Prior knowledge:
Blueprint: E1 19-25, H1 35-52, E2 55-61, E3 65-71, H2 82-89, H3 95-110, H4 114-125, H5 131-150, E4 162-166, H6 170-180, H7 182-185, H8 199-205, H9 210-224, H10 236-250, H11 261-277, E5 291-292, E6 305-306
Antiparallel strand pairs: 1-3, 1-4, 2-3, 5-6
Helix pairs in contact: 1-5, 3-4, 6-9, 6-10, 8-9, 9-10
Amino acid sequence: MRRSRWLAPWKDSLEKPAIYHCISRVVDRRFVLGDDEREQFRKFMRMQENFSGCRVLSYCLMSNHFHLLLEVPPMPKGGISDELLLNRLAAIQSAAFVAGVAQELQHARQAGNDTLASEIHARHTYRMHSLSEFMKTLLQRFTRWFNRTHERSGTLWEQRYKSVIVESGTAARTMAAYIDLNPVRASIVKDPADYRWSSYGEAIGGGNKGNGKKAREGLVRACLSHHGAGFEAGKWQDAAKIYRQLLGLALQRKSGHADLTAARHTLKAKVKGELNASRERFSARRKDGARRMKGSAAPAANTLWTVRDLRMGIG
């Protein structure tokens, strides 16, 4: 029986962000995602982001797989307003569809039928603020487009997508850097800023408006959330200095690993704590908690820790 996906125990907290590193690969690991495909995937990703209330902190689209660092905030208590619902629907639906929902809501409100209005909301909001719904909708939407474009049928993605819970702070910004460094490790570019289909490449090349602004907001959040920063593009210069240094450290091009020493012990302890809090998901033979990163993430083995031994590298 398929085991339910492991979600952050604090997923409903308003204080601590629930962040996930999501990975999916093309079936048979075929190299089928060219420039047009990656551009379309990014378009769908941003559409789903605008609709769902989830936020992409970092991403990288390769020719046969992709990585997302996704923050999934809880649904606000009391739900969302009619206006916000319609604005979110406009990100993924036609103007005619949104107008129809607006008319339904207007009639329900005018009749004083709040129960009906709540039912109208529920038809759409169940797909918001949800890791599973975000990924399912994104992958299905792209698969339909890809199959139609290439006159094929069937599944495009290999198995279920993988997701790993990521702590905010050091772990989140380090994971963001590893995601952005995928094309460097693959020898596609020397500087991650030169790769168009990544958060850092988009933040640098996209400017301070549109998707460039979105990419900057995500990286600001990944780098500075522990200082209370939200999705604030205005803090990009501060975040960029930290991130650029981190990109160099991740490639072991610069010294400075001592700066992470205190965080190492904290993260290791947190991983052990999560194991104890979710003991029912593990064998009774499992005695210790933290696992070192392996494969392409080996350089971060003393900085990032996981609860499970990952079966595939993050690269």
